[in-house]
Design a protein that fits this description.
CATH topology: Rossmann fold
Structural class: alpha/beta
Strand order of the largest sheet: 3-2-1-4-5-7-6
Order of helices and strands: HHHEHEEHEHEHEE
CATH superfamily: Vaccinia Virus protein VP39
Number of domains: 1
Shape: globular
Strand content: 15-25%
Radius of gyration: 16 Å
Number of strands: 7
Distance between the termini: 42 Å
Largest sheet: 7 strands, mixed
Helix content: 25-40%
CATH architecture: 3-Layer(aba) Sandwich
């Protein structure tokens, strides 16, 4: 990473400020713009490795934070971490056992890229749909959801599905995102609740 992004100002800034990756600044930017996380919100971070979003979340809320990833991460003070696949019932039960309720679900995960654009886009949307299904299953009514996705084929269908489940939905391109990237964040506020979702 150092050789490829060594001249990247956010990469350098993350090293200087102690964040585990430059992605930390994306969440900081989303929070500044949309105020999605309050001081008493319990948060689940999907695809949390290497942990930079968990570091930022720890600064934003005094409540509980649980990170989930297929890969283990180095501990972050006053947070919990579950190693496993968040789409499985066993991992979901573990998360529920750690939290009284879930106010926020965030996901900055990306699939491993093959370089084949349409295939990678389909896998990215699939991952986003899995994260949305998780959020719908675990969020309390009125909760918020932030997910990274990529504009292209099937993006509109994903966006419509998010809108079916949340009262306020915005698409936001972070300034920190690299030039030429189709990366965007879907910021969804005020979960309708399972009984109202389609």
């Amino acid at each position: 990473m150092g050789s490829q992004w060594g001249s990247d100002k956010y990469y350098k800034k993350s090293l200087k400020e102690g964040y585990r990756s430059r992605a930390a600044y994306k969440l900081l930017e989303v929070q500044k713009r949309f105020q999605i996380i309050r001081k008493d919100d319990n948060v689940v971070d999907l695809g949390a490795a290497p942990g930079s979003w968990m570091q930022v979340l720890r600064e934003m809320t005094d409540a509980q934070i649980v990170g989930v990833d297929l890969n283990p991460i180095a501990p972050i003070e006053n947070t919990a971490f579950v190693t496993g696949d968040f789409t499985t019932e066993a991992v979901q039960e573990k998360i529920r056992s750690l939290l009284d309720e879930v106010n926020i679900v965030v996901c900055d995960a990306s699939p491993k890229l093959s370089g084949q654009k349409s295939y990678d886009q389909a896998r990215a949307i699939g991952l986003s749909e899995d994260a949305l299904a998780f959020a719908v299953k675990i969020l309390k009514p009125g909760g918020n959801f932030v997910i990274k996705s990529f504009q292209g084929e099937m993006f509109k269908e994903l966006l419509d599905e998010v809108r079916d489940n949340f009262y306020a939905v915005k698409v936001y391109r972070a300034r920190v995102s690299r030039k030429g990237s189709t990366e965007v964040y879907i910021v969804a506020k005020n979960f309708r609740g399972r009984n109202n979702s389609s």
